[in-house]
Fold this sequence. Notes:
Layout: E1 7-11, H1 16-27, E2 31-36, H2 39-47, E3 54-57, H3 63-77, E4 82-85, H4 102-130, E5 133-138, H5 151-171, E6 176-183, H6 189-197, H7 201-207, H8 217-228, E7 239-242
Parallel strand pairs: 1-2, 1-4, 2-3, 4-5, 5-6, 6-7
Helix pairs in contact: 1-8, 3-4, 4-5
Bound molecules: nicotinamide-adenine-dinucleotide (NAD).
Amino acid sequence: MSFKEKVIVITGAGSGIGAATVRFFAKKEAYVVLADISLEKMVDISDSIPMECMIQKTDVSQYDQMQSLAGAVIKKYGQIDVWVNNAGIGPTQMLKTADHSLQDWERVIAVNQSGVFYGMKVALPAMLKQGSGNIVNVASLAGLKASGNNISYVASKFAVVGMTKAAALEYAKKNIRINAVCPGYTDTNMLRQLLEVKPEIEDKLKSHIPMGRFGKATEVATAIGWLASDQTQFMTGQTLSLDGGTSL
Ligand code: NAD
């Protein structure tokens, strides 16, 4: 997989799967652009890798900030080869639908669903202009099958899968591929925050995973890289599950 001097934009780049994806592409000598709501986290990640990266504080739920991000990347590099819509959050409380708070609903949909739409909307004009491009959206196993007490997250991730397929169809003739990864439980801050509140569920969650362990952020990052690479040239609008067999 060669990404030498390709321009790769990664949202939610400050932690977990996003940070692992930054490291994956940095090792391949790409020009990596980190976008995250937390400047501090991005500085930590960029300090930990040998090459210089571009950093732009961005809230993916704010369309004007996403426009500024794409504009700044084009100004600096003149192209966008790969755009990874990875930023995502879960609800603050895991409650059944009747009790799910409106605040959680609005925030999760704004970040996970609108954020991915905005990412595609700002990246595609540059990709159309240059005649090529590759978008990888980070959905979830929760975007393929139901999970309880999580209505906003499930809705947002089913939407990511649907948007991936719809947009892939629209741009298939334009040399722009759009795919999604669907990780199962992956050992990142997002999962650790859940386990801090309910440590007793760790073994229960693992018991639902045939491989008996959580996924690693690096494993998801490698799959993102593969989808963005020339090795998957006839693949578009697809979901790739990384779940240790959970969906089986
Ligand atoms: P994480 O919490 O470790 O990282 C998420 C990053 O996104 C953080 O750096 C955070 O600052 C950033 N972020 C949050 N809101 C943002 C916003 N509005 N704008 C820009 N950046 C924002 O979580 P993670 O597990 O690495 O999650 C990455 C993606 O993977 C998410 O889309 C998540 O839904 C998905 N996912 C995670 C798991 C899992 O078990 N960890 C499973 C399936 C899918």
